[in-house]
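User: Could you go from structure to sequence for me? I need the amino acid at each position, not a summary. Structure tokens:
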């Protein structure tokens, strides 16, 4: 049809996934191929679920990755006209995410069964790290577009989520010596999304989920290196 779809490849992964698509579109933008990214990003919107969230169940890392993919493109291009067209879908997704996290016992992205990468059953650490990354992008977009009420609402939601996440993380890292494990309430698992601790921004001060000097960052990096 009329869709541009950033598939992973023509072989085993001959299809579209929000998670991979987010990386692919970011790669296009980093390489200066902004037109390619702009062609591919609208296909993400076809995965907006009834609850308003743009993702492919049960892959909850897609919650934050979608927001990041759109936010990253906007940050790198400064295209406010494009952002205006995309913003209603993204704002709806943010509100859907906050509604879902409010229903979770921990107040976080819900627990899911193993489906890839970390291979755990529980609350994935990486889901929260991705979500906080993506939320910061959409808050910045809302502010730039003059959606001050939304920006204020989303900022409060972000701060509430971050506070809940850090509070949940505290007893976990107390037992691990500071290391952020793949899951907040699951044993073992493969290191993956739990490594999304820092992320440099283009054109804005570097701002990750943690400060570079945070002992939890050091402990996590050292633990993974030892493994």
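Assistant: Here is the amino acid at each position, in order:
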């Amino acid at each position: 049809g009329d869709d541009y779809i950033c598939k992973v490849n023509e072989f085993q992964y001959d299809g579209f996934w929000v998670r991979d698509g987010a990386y692919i579109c970011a790669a296009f933008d980093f390489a200066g191929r902004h037109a390619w990214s702009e062609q591919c990003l609208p296909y993400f919107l076809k995965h907006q679920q009834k609850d308003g969230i743009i993702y492919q169940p049960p892959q909850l890392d897609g919650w934050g990755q979608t927001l990041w993919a759109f936010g990253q493109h906007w940050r790198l291009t400064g295209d406010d006209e494009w952002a205006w067209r995309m913003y209603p879908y993204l704002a709806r997704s943010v509100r859907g995410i906050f509604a879902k996290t409010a229903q979770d016992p921990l107040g976080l992205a819900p627990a899911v069964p193993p489906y890839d990468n970390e291979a755990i059953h529980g609350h994935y650490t990486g889901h929260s790290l991705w979500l906080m990354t993506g939320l910061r992008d959409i808050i910045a977009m809302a502010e730039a577009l003059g959606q001050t009420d939304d920006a204020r609402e989303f900022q409060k939601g972000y701060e509430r989520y971050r506070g809940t996440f850090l509070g949940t993380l505290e007893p976990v890292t107390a037992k691990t010596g500071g290391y952020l494990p793949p899951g907040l309430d699951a044993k073992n698992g493969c290191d993956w999304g739990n490594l999304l601790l820092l992320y440099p921004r283009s054109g804005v001060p570097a701002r990750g989920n943690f400060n570079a000097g945070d002992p939890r960052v050091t402990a996590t990096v050292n633990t993974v290196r030892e493994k």
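One structural detail worth keeping in mind: The radius of gyration is 17 Å.
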